[in-house]
Specification:
0% of the residues lie in helices and 53% in strands. The protein has no helices and eleven strands. It has strands at residues 2-6, 9-12, 17-24, 32-38, 45-51, 57-59, 67-72, 77-82, 91-98, 107-108, 112-117. The strands form two sheets. Strands 2, 4, 5, 6, 9, 10 and 11 form a seven-stranded mixed β-sheet that branches. A four-stranded antiparallel β-sheet has the order 1-3-8-7, with no helix packed on it. A hairpin with a 6-residue loop joins strand 4 and strand 5 (45-51). The N and C termini lie far apart (37 Å).
Length: 118
């Protein structure tokens, strides 16, 4: 499967952005899609995930209530809606997919930069 992430940009604190992750090739076998981020000088951090079926989502505590993952079935695209952004959300965001649970994410999109100014 190929993933393409886009939608990043520069936004002021308190603002919103929506990232997109378009999937192609082998999408019928995807188990879930995860969103990750990596801030400068820090390790990559898991943000949340959504079952490809769309019935289950999970978020880390730091983004709960602010970030929402959704999916457009017709477009094979998963979205990360980010509201009430904070400067500490600044990072390169990645989407990733895997074909079953309890394994590492095998397929990664290119990152998209999100910068939140204070």
């Amino acid at each position: 499967v190929q993933l393409q992430a886009f939608g990043g940009g520069l936004v002021q604190a308190g603002g919103s952005l929506r990232l997109s992750c378009a999937a192609s090739g082998g999408t019928v076998s995807i188990y879930d899609v995860g969103w990750f981020r990596q801030a400068p000088g820090k390790e990559r951090e898991f943000v949340g995930r959504m079952r490809w079926s769309g019935d289950t989502t999970y978020y880390v505590d730091s983004v709960k209530g602010r970030f929402t993952i959704s999916r457009d079935n017709a477009k094979n695209t998963v979205y990360l809606q980010m509201n009430s952004l904070k400067p500490e959300d600044t990072a390169v965001y990645y989407c990733a997919a895997r074909y079953r649970d309890y394994v590492t994410y095998q397929y990664w999109g290119q990152g998209t930069q999100v910068t939140v100014s204070s």
